[in-house]
Amino acid sequence: MSKRFYITTPIYYPNGEPHLGHCYTTIAADALARYHRWVGEDTFFLTGTDEHGIKMVKTAADLKIEPSELADRVAAVFQEVWKELDISHDDFIRTTQGRHKTAVQEIVRKLQANGDIYLGSYEGWYDESQEEFVTETEAKNHEFKSAVTGRGLVRYKEPTYFFRLTKYASKILEHIERNPGFIRPESRRNEVTSKLKAGVDDLSISRATLKWGIPMPNDPGHVIYVWIDALSNYITALGYAAGDRSRFERYWPVDVHLIGKEILWFHTVYWPAVLMGIGAELPKSVFAHGWWTSGGRKMSKTLGNFIDMEKIRGIVGKYGLDSLRYYLLRAAPFGSDLDWNDGDFMKAFGELANVLGNCLNRVVKMIGRYRGGVLPAVVGELEEIDRGLLARMAGLEGELGKAYENCELHHCAVLPLELARATNGYIESTAPFGLAKDPAKAGRLDTVLNISAQAVYRALVGFLPILPHKAVEGLRQLGVDVSGKDMAELLGSDVPAGQKLGEGQPLFPRVE
Ligand code: MSP
Fold it and tell me: Using CA atoms, how far apart are residues 455 and 457, in angstroms rounded to an integer?
Protein backbone atom coordinates (compact mmCIF):
# COMPACT_ATOMS: atom_id res chain seq x y z
CA MET A 1 0.00 0.00 0.00
CA SER A 2 1.53 3.30 -1.03
CA LYS A 3 1.84 6.23 1.32
CA ARG A 4 -1.08 8.65 1.23
CA PHE A 5 -1.08 12.38 0.95
CA TYR A 6 -4.07 14.66 1.33
CA ILE A 7 -3.75 18.40 0.75
CA THR A 8 -6.36 21.17 0.70
CA THR A 9 -6.61 24.85 -0.13
CA PRO A 10 -9.08 27.11 1.65
CA ILE A 11 -12.43 27.10 -0.08
CA TYR A 12 -12.72 30.57 -1.54
CA TYR A 13 -15.66 32.98 -1.24
CA PRO A 14 -17.19 33.29 -4.68
CA ASN A 15 -18.25 36.88 -4.05
CA GLY A 16 -15.54 38.23 -6.31
CA GLU A 17 -13.36 36.86 -9.06
CA PRO A 18 -10.16 35.01 -8.24
CA HIS A 19 -7.00 37.09 -8.00
CA LEU A 20 -3.30 36.68 -7.27
CA GLY A 21 -3.90 35.61 -3.64
CA HIS A 22 -6.18 32.72 -4.61
CA CYS A 23 -3.89 31.71 -7.47
CA TYR A 24 -0.91 31.70 -5.13
CA THR A 25 -2.37 29.29 -2.59
CA THR A 26 -3.77 27.06 -5.29
CA ILE A 27 -0.54 26.94 -7.30
CA ALA A 28 1.47 26.21 -4.15
CA ALA A 29 -0.88 23.37 -3.21
CA ASP A 30 -0.70 22.15 -6.80
CA ALA A 31 3.12 21.99 -6.69
CA LEU A 32 2.96 20.04 -3.42
CA ALA A 33 0.32 17.67 -4.80
CA ARG A 34 2.31 17.11 -7.98
CA TYR A 35 5.45 16.34 -6.00
CA HIS A 36 3.67 13.79 -3.84
CA ARG A 37 2.15 12.18 -6.94
CA TRP A 38 5.58 12.09 -8.60
CA VAL A 39 7.07 10.23 -5.67
CA GLY A 40 4.31 7.68 -6.06
CA GLU A 41 2.07 8.60 -3.13
CA ASP A 42 -1.67 8.07 -3.29
CA THR A 43 -2.49 11.78 -3.41
CA PHE A 44 -5.75 13.68 -3.02
CA PHE A 45 -5.90 17.42 -3.66
CA LEU A 46 -9.05 19.34 -2.76
CA THR A 47 -10.18 22.88 -3.47
CA GLY A 48 -13.58 24.54 -3.79
CA THR A 49 -15.84 27.46 -2.92
CA ASP A 50 -17.39 28.69 0.34
CA GLU A 51 -20.79 29.87 -0.77
CA HIS A 52 -22.82 30.76 2.33
CA GLY A 53 -22.60 33.66 4.79
CA ILE A 54 -23.55 37.32 4.97
CA LYS A 55 -20.79 38.38 2.60
CA MET A 56 -22.38 36.45 -0.26
CA VAL A 57 -25.85 37.82 0.60
CA LYS A 58 -24.61 41.42 0.53
CA THR A 59 -22.70 41.11 -2.73
CA ALA A 60 -25.67 39.40 -4.37
CA ALA A 61 -27.99 42.18 -3.12
CA ASP A 62 -25.65 44.81 -4.58
CA LEU A 63 -25.80 43.01 -7.90
CA LYS A 64 -29.58 42.57 -7.57
CA ILE A 65 -29.35 38.80 -7.94
CA GLU A 66 -29.98 35.85 -5.64
CA PRO A 67 -27.00 34.53 -3.62
CA SER A 68 -27.41 31.18 -5.37
CA GLU A 69 -27.01 32.84 -8.75
CA LEU A 70 -23.90 34.67 -7.57
CA ALA A 71 -22.48 31.42 -6.22
CA ASP A 72 -23.18 29.54 -9.45
CA ARG A 73 -21.67 32.27 -11.58
CA VAL A 74 -18.49 32.82 -9.62
CA ALA A 75 -17.89 29.17 -8.68
CA ALA A 76 -17.89 28.50 -12.44
CA VAL A 77 -15.31 31.26 -12.90
CA PHE A 78 -13.06 29.70 -10.24
CA GLN A 79 -13.33 26.31 -11.94
CA GLU A 80 -12.55 27.85 -15.30
CA VAL A 81 -9.51 29.67 -13.91
CA TRP A 82 -8.13 26.50 -12.31
CA LYS A 83 -8.49 24.80 -15.67
CA GLU A 84 -6.63 27.64 -17.38
CA LEU A 85 -3.86 27.43 -14.79
CA ASP A 86 -3.79 23.65 -15.16
CA ILE A 87 -4.43 22.99 -11.47
CA SER A 88 -4.43 19.26 -10.78
CA HIS A 89 -7.10 19.08 -8.05
CA ASP A 90 -8.96 15.82 -7.63
CA ASP A 91 -12.22 17.38 -6.45
CA PHE A 92 -13.90 20.75 -6.25
CA ILE A 93 -16.37 21.12 -3.43
CA ARG A 94 -19.11 23.72 -3.31
CA THR A 95 -20.75 24.22 0.06
CA THR A 96 -24.16 24.50 -1.62
CA GLN A 97 -23.90 20.92 -2.87
CA GLY A 98 -26.23 18.35 -1.34
CA ARG A 99 -23.32 16.09 -0.34
CA HIS A 100 -21.92 18.90 1.77
CA LYS A 101 -25.17 20.16 3.30
CA THR A 102 -26.38 16.82 4.60
CA ALA A 103 -22.97 15.97 6.02
CA VAL A 104 -22.67 19.35 7.81
CA GLN A 105 -26.06 18.76 9.43
CA GLU A 106 -24.85 15.35 10.53
CA ILE A 107 -21.72 16.90 12.03
CA VAL A 108 -23.85 19.41 13.99
CA ARG A 109 -26.16 16.58 15.09
CA LYS A 110 -23.14 14.71 16.42
CA LEU A 111 -21.96 17.76 18.33
CA GLN A 112 -25.44 18.09 19.79
CA ALA A 113 -25.50 14.45 20.82
CA ASN A 114 -22.15 15.03 22.48
CA GLY A 115 -23.63 17.85 24.57
CA ASP A 116 -21.46 20.47 22.87
CA ILE A 117 -24.23 22.75 21.68
CA TYR A 118 -26.69 24.89 23.69
CA LEU A 119 -29.12 27.70 22.93
CA GLY A 120 -28.28 31.17 24.22
CA SER A 121 -28.20 34.67 22.89
CA TYR A 122 -25.39 36.65 21.38
CA GLU A 123 -24.74 40.30 21.66
CA GLY A 124 -21.51 41.60 20.30
CA TRP A 125 -19.43 42.62 17.32
CA TYR A 126 -19.20 40.83 14.00
CA ASP A 127 -16.70 41.35 11.22
CA GLU A 128 -18.75 40.66 8.12
CA SER A 129 -15.79 40.89 5.79
CA GLN A 130 -14.06 38.05 7.66
CA GLU A 131 -17.28 36.32 8.83
CA GLU A 132 -15.89 36.46 12.35
CA PHE A 133 -17.19 37.27 15.85
CA VAL A 134 -14.94 39.78 17.56
CA THR A 135 -14.49 40.32 21.30
CA GLU A 136 -15.15 43.70 22.88
CA THR A 137 -11.42 44.27 23.53
CA GLU A 138 -10.38 43.33 20.00
CA ALA A 139 -13.12 45.55 18.59
CA LYS A 140 -11.93 48.49 20.72
CA ASN A 141 -8.28 47.88 19.84
CA HIS A 142 -9.08 48.19 16.16
CA GLU A 143 -11.48 51.14 16.53
CA PHE A 144 -14.45 48.88 15.76
CA LYS A 145 -13.05 48.04 12.35
CA SER A 146 -11.97 44.71 10.88
CA ALA A 147 -8.36 43.93 11.80
CA VAL A 148 -7.88 42.38 8.35
CA THR A 149 -9.91 44.49 5.93
CA GLY A 150 -10.51 47.70 7.88
CA ARG A 151 -14.25 47.57 7.23
CA GLY A 152 -16.59 48.66 10.05
CA LEU A 153 -17.77 46.01 12.54
CA VAL A 154 -21.47 45.32 12.91
CA ARG A 155 -23.35 44.95 16.21
CA TYR A 156 -25.31 41.70 16.42
CA LYS A 157 -27.98 40.87 18.98
CA GLU A 158 -29.89 37.66 18.45
CA PRO A 159 -30.68 34.21 19.84
CA THR A 160 -28.04 31.74 18.78
CA TYR A 161 -26.75 28.25 19.37
CA PHE A 162 -23.35 28.08 20.99
CA PHE A 163 -20.63 25.50 20.58
CA ARG A 164 -18.67 24.76 23.75
CA LEU A 165 -15.29 25.88 22.48
CA THR A 166 -14.24 26.46 26.10
CA LYS A 167 -14.47 22.72 26.73
CA TYR A 168 -11.73 22.05 24.15
CA ALA A 169 -9.41 25.03 24.54
CA SER A 170 -6.91 23.43 26.91
CA LYS A 171 -6.82 20.19 24.91
CA ILE A 172 -6.09 22.17 21.75
CA LEU A 173 -3.34 24.12 23.46
CA GLU A 174 -1.83 20.88 24.66
CA HIS A 175 -2.05 19.40 21.17
CA ILE A 176 -0.30 22.42 19.64
CA GLU A 177 2.45 22.34 22.24
CA ARG A 178 3.01 18.60 21.93
CA ASN A 179 3.02 18.56 18.13
CA PRO A 180 5.49 21.10 16.84
CA GLY A 181 4.63 20.20 13.24
CA PHE A 182 0.93 20.96 13.68
CA ILE A 183 1.20 24.70 12.99
CA ARG A 184 3.72 25.62 10.34
CA PRO A 185 5.83 27.60 9.88
CA GLU A 186 6.92 27.47 13.49
CA SER A 187 6.97 31.26 13.69
CA ARG A 188 3.16 31.31 13.55
CA ARG A 189 2.57 28.97 16.49
CA ASN A 190 2.98 31.59 19.15
CA GLU A 191 0.24 33.78 17.80
CA VAL A 192 -2.27 30.97 18.30
CA THR A 193 -1.00 29.73 21.66
CA SER A 194 -0.93 33.21 23.21
CA LYS A 195 -4.48 33.93 22.05
CA LEU A 196 -5.58 30.58 23.45
CA LYS A 197 -3.87 31.27 26.75
CA ALA A 198 -5.65 34.62 26.96
CA GLY A 199 -8.90 32.64 27.05
CA VAL A 200 -11.68 31.87 24.59
CA ASP A 201 -15.48 32.14 24.75
CA ASP A 202 -17.96 29.61 23.50
CA LEU A 203 -18.60 30.12 19.81
CA SER A 204 -21.87 31.34 18.34
CA ILE A 205 -22.59 28.84 15.58
CA SER A 206 -25.98 29.84 14.25
CA ARG A 207 -27.69 32.89 12.81
CA ALA A 208 -31.43 33.38 13.20
CA THR A 209 -31.50 36.49 11.02
CA LEU A 210 -29.91 34.91 7.98
CA LYS A 211 -31.66 32.63 5.51
CA TRP A 212 -28.71 31.89 3.19
CA GLY A 213 -27.01 28.92 4.77
CA ILE A 214 -27.46 25.36 5.96
CA PRO A 215 -30.39 25.06 8.44
CA MET A 216 -29.65 23.87 11.98
CA PRO A 217 -30.90 20.28 12.00
CA ASN A 218 -33.05 20.74 15.13
CA ASP A 219 -34.15 24.30 14.45
CA PRO A 220 -34.46 25.29 10.79
CA GLY A 221 -35.12 28.92 11.80
CA HIS A 222 -31.36 29.19 12.27
CA VAL A 223 -28.63 28.67 9.71
CA ILE A 224 -25.25 27.24 10.68
CA TYR A 225 -22.43 29.77 11.13
CA VAL A 226 -20.45 29.92 7.95
CA TRP A 227 -17.06 28.88 9.43
CA ILE A 228 -18.43 25.63 10.83
CA ASP A 229 -20.06 25.01 7.45
CA ALA A 230 -16.88 25.96 5.57
CA LEU A 231 -14.29 24.07 7.63
CA SER A 232 -16.33 20.89 7.40
CA ASN A 233 -15.72 20.81 3.63
CA TYR A 234 -12.40 19.12 4.27
CA ILE A 235 -14.21 15.99 5.39
CA THR A 236 -17.58 16.27 3.66
CA ALA A 237 -15.72 16.16 0.32
CA LEU A 238 -14.28 12.83 1.44
CA GLY A 239 -17.77 11.45 2.05
CA TYR A 240 -17.76 11.83 5.84
CA ALA A 241 -21.27 11.06 7.07
CA ALA A 242 -22.22 9.76 3.60
CA GLY A 243 -23.06 6.24 2.59
CA ASP A 244 -19.61 5.62 1.17
CA ARG A 245 -16.90 6.65 3.63
CA SER A 246 -14.06 4.96 1.79
CA ARG A 247 -12.40 8.23 0.74
CA PHE A 248 -12.61 9.53 4.29
CA GLU A 249 -11.05 6.39 5.64
CA ARG A 250 -8.37 6.49 3.02
CA TYR A 251 -7.27 10.13 3.28
CA TRP A 252 -8.20 11.50 6.69
CA PRO A 253 -6.38 12.93 8.64
CA VAL A 254 -5.23 15.51 6.13
CA ASP A 255 -1.48 16.00 5.71
CA VAL A 256 -1.53 19.72 4.93
CA HIS A 257 -4.27 22.33 5.16
CA LEU A 258 -2.62 25.09 3.15
CA ILE A 259 -4.05 28.51 4.02
CA GLY A 260 -3.27 32.22 4.14
CA LYS A 261 -2.12 33.52 7.51
CA GLU A 262 -5.34 35.47 8.20
CA ILE A 263 -7.39 32.30 8.70
CA LEU A 264 -4.97 30.41 10.93
CA TRP A 265 -7.08 30.78 14.08
CA PHE A 266 -10.14 29.15 12.47
CA HIS A 267 -8.07 26.22 11.23
CA THR A 268 -6.07 25.60 14.37
CA VAL A 269 -8.73 26.26 17.03
CA TYR A 270 -12.32 26.04 15.73
CA TRP A 271 -11.62 23.17 13.37
CA PRO A 272 -9.73 20.94 15.84
CA ALA A 273 -12.48 21.62 18.42
CA VAL A 274 -15.17 20.43 16.00
CA LEU A 275 -13.09 17.38 15.09
CA MET A 276 -12.59 16.53 18.77
CA GLY A 277 -16.34 16.94 19.29
CA ILE A 278 -17.19 14.43 16.57
CA GLY A 279 -14.37 12.09 17.56
CA ALA A 280 -12.30 12.47 14.39
CA GLU A 281 -8.53 12.76 14.17
CA LEU A 282 -6.92 16.19 13.94
CA PRO A 283 -5.11 17.46 10.83
CA LYS A 284 -1.45 16.51 10.70
CA SER A 285 -0.52 20.08 9.87
CA VAL A 286 -1.85 23.50 9.01
CA PHE A 287 0.56 25.59 6.97
CA ALA A 288 -0.06 29.34 6.85
CA HIS A 289 1.63 31.22 4.05
CA GLY A 290 2.18 34.95 3.84
CA TRP A 291 0.27 37.67 2.06
CA TRP A 292 0.99 39.30 -1.24
CA THR A 293 1.16 43.03 -1.53
CA SER A 294 1.77 44.75 -4.83
CA GLY A 295 4.36 47.45 -5.39
CA GLY A 296 4.81 47.62 -1.61
CA ARG A 297 1.11 48.26 -0.84
CA LYS A 298 -2.00 46.27 -0.10
CA MET A 299 -3.54 45.21 -3.42
CA SER A 300 -6.47 47.41 -4.20
CA LYS A 301 -8.57 48.26 -7.22
CA THR A 302 -8.56 51.94 -6.41
CA LEU A 303 -4.77 52.09 -6.09
CA GLY A 304 -4.54 50.37 -9.49
CA ASN A 305 -2.04 47.81 -8.18
CA PHE A 306 -4.45 44.90 -8.08
CA ILE A 307 -3.08 41.71 -9.62
CA ASP A 308 -6.26 40.35 -11.14
CA MET A 309 -6.88 37.63 -13.69
CA GLU A 310 -6.43 40.03 -16.57
CA LYS A 311 -2.89 40.80 -15.44
CA ILE A 312 -2.19 37.12 -14.69
CA ARG A 313 -3.51 36.05 -18.09
CA GLY A 314 -1.28 38.64 -19.74
CA ILE A 315 1.78 37.21 -17.98
CA VAL A 316 0.85 33.61 -18.72
CA GLY A 317 0.12 34.42 -22.37
CA LYS A 318 3.47 36.11 -22.81
CA TYR A 319 5.86 34.17 -20.56
CA GLY A 320 4.05 30.89 -19.97
CA LEU A 321 2.33 29.36 -17.00
CA ASP A 322 5.46 27.75 -15.60
CA SER A 323 7.27 31.08 -15.39
CA LEU A 324 4.44 32.43 -13.26
CA ARG A 325 4.60 29.36 -10.99
CA TYR A 326 8.34 29.71 -10.61
CA TYR A 327 8.16 33.41 -9.80
CA LEU A 328 5.38 32.97 -7.22
CA LEU A 329 7.05 30.09 -5.43
CA ARG A 330 10.54 31.45 -5.26
CA ALA A 331 9.63 35.08 -4.54
CA ALA A 332 10.20 34.64 -0.78
CA PRO A 333 10.66 31.85 1.75
CA PHE A 334 7.31 30.07 1.84
CA GLY A 335 5.40 31.42 4.83
CA SER A 336 6.73 35.01 4.57
CA ASP A 337 4.87 37.95 3.09
CA LEU A 338 5.59 38.74 -0.53
CA ASP A 339 5.45 41.71 -2.83
CA TRP A 340 4.55 41.57 -6.51
CA ASN A 341 6.98 43.48 -8.62
CA ASP A 342 7.18 43.33 -12.42
CA GLY A 343 10.95 43.76 -12.31
CA ASP A 344 11.29 40.74 -10.00
CA PHE A 345 9.10 38.71 -12.29
CA MET A 346 11.40 39.55 -15.20
CA LYS A 347 14.41 38.53 -13.11
CA ALA A 348 12.83 35.16 -12.35
CA PHE A 349 11.96 34.65 -16.00
CA GLY A 350 15.51 35.61 -16.97
CA GLU A 351 16.84 33.06 -14.49
CA LEU A 352 14.79 30.28 -16.07
CA ALA A 353 15.82 31.29 -19.57
CA ASN A 354 19.50 31.99 -18.89
CA VAL A 355 20.25 29.27 -16.39
CA LEU A 356 17.92 26.33 -17.06
CA GLY A 357 16.94 26.98 -20.68
CA ASN A 358 20.46 27.90 -21.69
CA CYS A 359 21.98 24.88 -19.96
CA LEU A 360 19.66 22.48 -21.74
CA ASN A 361 20.16 24.20 -25.04
CA ARG A 362 23.95 24.03 -24.77
CA VAL A 363 23.89 20.36 -23.89
CA VAL A 364 21.51 19.35 -26.68
CA LYS A 365 23.28 21.54 -29.25
CA MET A 366 26.77 20.25 -28.32
CA ILE A 367 25.68 16.63 -28.47
CA GLY A 368 24.05 17.41 -31.82
CA ARG A 369 27.13 19.11 -33.20
CA TYR A 370 29.84 16.82 -31.82
CA ARG A 371 28.10 13.46 -31.59
CA GLY A 372 25.33 13.58 -34.19
CA GLY A 373 22.64 13.92 -31.46
CA VAL A 374 23.49 10.60 -29.81
CA LEU A 375 24.44 10.64 -26.12
CA PRO A 376 28.00 9.32 -25.73
CA ALA A 377 29.05 7.07 -22.84
CA VAL A 378 31.51 8.07 -20.11
CA VAL A 379 35.04 7.12 -21.17
CA GLY A 380 37.97 6.48 -18.84
CA GLU A 381 38.69 7.86 -15.38
CA LEU A 382 36.53 10.53 -13.83
CA GLU A 383 38.12 13.79 -12.77
CA GLU A 384 37.57 15.72 -9.57
CA ILE A 385 35.23 18.19 -11.30
CA ASP A 386 33.09 15.31 -12.64
CA ARG A 387 32.79 13.77 -9.21
CA GLY A 388 31.78 17.14 -7.77
CA LEU A 389 28.83 17.51 -10.15
CA LEU A 390 27.84 13.83 -9.78
CA ALA A 391 27.73 14.28 -6.00
CA ARG A 392 25.40 17.28 -6.38
CA MET A 393 23.10 15.28 -8.61
CA ALA A 394 23.05 12.41 -6.16
CA GLY A 395 22.07 14.80 -3.36
CA LEU A 396 19.11 16.31 -5.21
CA GLU A 397 16.52 13.65 -4.39
CA GLY A 398 17.14 13.85 -0.64
CA GLU A 399 17.31 17.63 -0.57
CA LEU A 400 14.12 18.00 -2.57
CA GLY A 401 12.37 15.41 -0.42
CA LYS A 402 13.23 17.36 2.71
CA ALA A 403 12.23 20.69 1.19
CA TYR A 404 8.85 19.33 0.03
CA GLU A 405 8.21 17.62 3.38
CA ASN A 406 8.80 20.95 5.11
CA CYS A 407 6.75 22.86 2.49
CA GLU A 408 9.81 25.00 1.76
CA LEU A 409 8.61 25.73 -1.72
CA HIS A 410 11.22 28.41 -2.40
CA HIS A 411 13.91 25.74 -1.85
CA CYS A 412 12.00 23.34 -4.06
CA ALA A 413 12.23 25.93 -6.84
CA VAL A 414 15.81 26.93 -6.21
CA LEU A 415 17.41 23.47 -5.79
CA PRO A 416 16.95 22.30 -9.39
CA LEU A 417 17.85 25.75 -10.69
CA GLU A 418 21.10 25.70 -8.76
CA LEU A 419 21.92 22.30 -10.22
CA ALA A 420 21.44 23.77 -13.70
CA ARG A 421 23.67 26.69 -12.70
CA ALA A 422 26.34 24.28 -11.48
CA THR A 423 26.05 22.41 -14.78
CA ASN A 424 26.67 25.64 -16.67
CA GLY A 425 29.73 26.19 -14.50
CA TYR A 426 30.91 22.66 -15.23
CA ILE A 427 30.55 23.24 -18.98
CA GLU A 428 32.50 26.47 -18.73
CA SER A 429 35.31 24.84 -16.74
CA THR A 430 35.57 21.67 -18.81
CA ALA A 431 35.30 23.67 -22.09
CA PRO A 432 33.91 21.03 -24.48
CA PHE A 433 34.38 23.48 -27.37
CA GLY A 434 38.14 23.27 -26.78
CA LEU A 435 38.07 19.49 -26.32
CA ALA A 436 36.24 19.11 -29.64
CA LYS A 437 39.17 20.65 -31.46
CA ASP A 438 41.60 17.96 -30.33
CA PRO A 439 40.91 14.40 -31.60
CA ALA A 440 43.09 13.02 -28.77
CA LYS A 441 40.52 14.37 -26.29
CA ALA A 442 37.49 12.65 -27.84
CA GLY A 443 37.07 10.37 -24.82
CA ARG A 444 37.17 13.27 -22.41
CA LEU A 445 34.60 15.12 -24.54
CA ASP A 446 32.35 12.06 -24.37
CA THR A 447 32.57 12.07 -20.59
CA VAL A 448 31.88 15.81 -20.27
CA LEU A 449 28.89 15.62 -22.62
CA ASN A 450 27.49 12.63 -20.80
CA ILE A 451 27.83 14.16 -17.34
CA SER A 452 26.39 17.52 -18.46
CA ALA A 453 23.39 15.71 -19.94
CA GLN A 454 22.82 13.69 -16.76
CA ALA A 455 22.97 16.85 -14.67
CA VAL A 456 20.50 18.90 -16.72
CA TYR A 457 18.29 15.81 -16.89
CA ARG A 458 18.13 15.72 -13.10
CA ALA A 459 17.51 19.44 -12.84
CA LEU A 460 14.52 19.01 -15.18
CA VAL A 461 13.18 16.01 -13.25
CA GLY A 462 13.53 17.99 -10.01
CA PHE A 463 11.49 20.77 -11.63
CA LEU A 464 8.56 18.54 -12.62
CA PRO A 465 6.25 19.68 -9.77
CA ILE A 466 6.93 23.38 -10.31
CA LEU A 467 7.41 23.55 -14.08
CA PRO A 468 5.11 20.71 -15.11
CA HIS A 469 5.04 21.74 -18.77
CA LYS A 470 8.53 23.06 -19.36
CA ALA A 471 10.21 20.19 -17.52
CA VAL A 472 8.42 17.62 -19.65
CA GLU A 473 9.25 19.60 -22.79
CA GLY A 474 12.92 19.83 -21.77
CA LEU A 475 13.08 16.14 -20.95
CA ARG A 476 11.63 15.38 -24.37
CA GLN A 477 14.57 17.24 -25.89
CA LEU A 478 16.81 14.82 -24.00
CA GLY A 479 14.81 11.96 -25.50
CA VAL A 480 13.23 11.08 -22.14
CA ASP A 481 9.57 10.17 -21.75
CA VAL A 482 8.55 10.44 -18.10
CA SER A 483 5.20 8.70 -18.30
CA GLY A 484 4.76 5.73 -16.02
CA LYS A 485 7.91 6.49 -13.99
CA ASP A 486 8.13 7.97 -10.53
CA MET A 487 10.65 10.45 -9.26
CA ALA A 488 12.92 7.94 -7.52
CA GLU A 489 13.16 5.92 -10.72
CA LEU A 490 13.86 9.01 -12.79
CA LEU A 491 16.40 10.55 -10.44
CA GLY A 492 18.01 7.22 -9.72
CA SER A 493 18.73 6.40 -13.33
CA ASP A 494 20.80 7.98 -16.08
CA VAL A 495 19.82 8.93 -19.59
CA PRO A 496 21.26 5.84 -21.32
CA ALA A 497 24.31 6.26 -23.52
CA GLY A 498 23.35 5.75 -27.13
CA GLN A 499 20.09 7.60 -26.61
CA LYS A 500 19.00 9.74 -29.52
CA LEU A 501 18.29 13.27 -28.35
CA GLY A 502 15.49 15.43 -29.68
CA GLU A 503 15.63 18.84 -31.33
CA GLY A 504 17.23 21.62 -29.31
CA GLN A 505 14.63 24.39 -28.93
CA PRO A 506 14.86 27.30 -26.48
CA LEU A 507 12.78 26.27 -23.47
CA PHE A 508 12.01 29.87 -22.51
CA PRO A 509 12.13 31.79 -25.78
CA ARG A 510 13.01 35.47 -25.59
CA VAL A 511 9.93 37.67 -25.37
CA GLU A 512 9.94 40.99 -27.24
N1 MSP B 1 -13.85 31.21 2.65
C2 MSP B 1 -12.77 31.49 3.51
C3 MSP B 1 -11.92 30.26 3.74
C4 MSP B 1 -12.63 29.06 4.26
S5 MSP B 1 -11.59 27.68 4.39
C6 MSP B 1 -12.46 26.56 5.24
C7 MSP B 1 -11.92 32.59 2.89
N8 MSP B 1 -12.04 32.76 1.56
S9 MSP B 1 -11.26 33.88 0.70
O10 MSP B 1 -11.87 33.85 -0.61
O11 MSP B 1 -11.23 35.12 1.38
O12 MSP B 1 -9.82 33.31 0.51
C13 MSP B 1 -8.85 33.51 1.46
C14 MSP B 1 -7.57 32.84 0.99
O15 MSP B 1 -7.15 33.38 -0.27
C16 MSP B 1 -6.40 33.12 1.91
O17 MSP B 1 -6.37 32.25 3.00
C18 MSP B 1 -5.26 32.89 0.97
O19 MSP B 1 -5.11 31.51 0.79
C20 MSP B 1 -5.76 33.52 -0.31
N21 MSP B 1 -5.45 34.96 -0.38
C22 MSP B 1 -6.35 35.98 -0.60
N23 MSP B 1 -5.66 37.15 -0.68
C24 MSP B 1 -4.34 36.94 -0.49
C25 MSP B 1 -3.17 37.71 -0.64
N26 MSP B 1 -3.20 39.02 -0.87
N27 MSP B 1 -1.98 37.06 -0.55
C28 MSP B 1 -1.89 35.71 -0.41
N29 MSP B 1 -2.98 34.95 -0.30
C30 MSP B 1 -4.21 35.55 -0.05
O31 MSP B 1 -11.16 33.20 3.62
Answer: 5
